[in-house]
Design a protein that fits this description.
single chain; 138 residues; mainly alpha
Length: 138
């Protein structure tokens, strides 16, 4: 019985961190929708736009990767939340960097369902998420 109790001793911490991570993921979705000129949810749900689904999916994976790094390396719940917010900002900046430098017509291309644009957006988002997570190993 002690082995079972020892195994689930961290369940409350898990639940708290997981709930906050889900909340941060939801906040990221709102921030991402704010910084992108198109409505990804509408493009994906109503228009069945594959490019938007790939790009937005990559952004979610990239952010979640960075968030996982924040959970793994944080020293407290407050520390985790701070670094989670840093991850949101980094992912938003990644989109801005792609949109205003490398691919200024990316939003228009995603609206036109150009899969290659969605793949590039997803790749940039995932790459930034990986770098962000790696940089959180202070």
């Amino acid at each position: 019985m002690n082995a079972i109790m020892d195994s689930i001793a961290g369940l409350s911490s898990f639940a708290l961190y997981f709930a906050i991570a889900i909340a941060l993921l939801f906040i990221f979705k709102i921030v991402y929708a704010f910084v992108t000129p198109q409505d990804e949810w509408k493009l994906v749900k109503e228009d069945k736009n594959v490019a938007a689904a790939i790009g937005f999916g990559g952004a979610m994976v990239g952010f979640s990767t960075a968030l996982a790094g924040a959970v793994s390396n944080s020293q407290s719940l407050v520390d985790f939340v701070i670094w989670g917010v840093v991850a949101i900002v980094a992912q938003a900046l990644a989109f801005a960097l792609l949109r205003f430098t490398f691919m200024p017509k990316i939003a228009e291309r995603i609206d036109n369902n150009e899969v290659s644009a969605g793949v590039m957006l997803a790749s940039m988002s995932i790459a930034v998420g990986l770098l962000n997570a790696a940089c959180m190993t202070y």
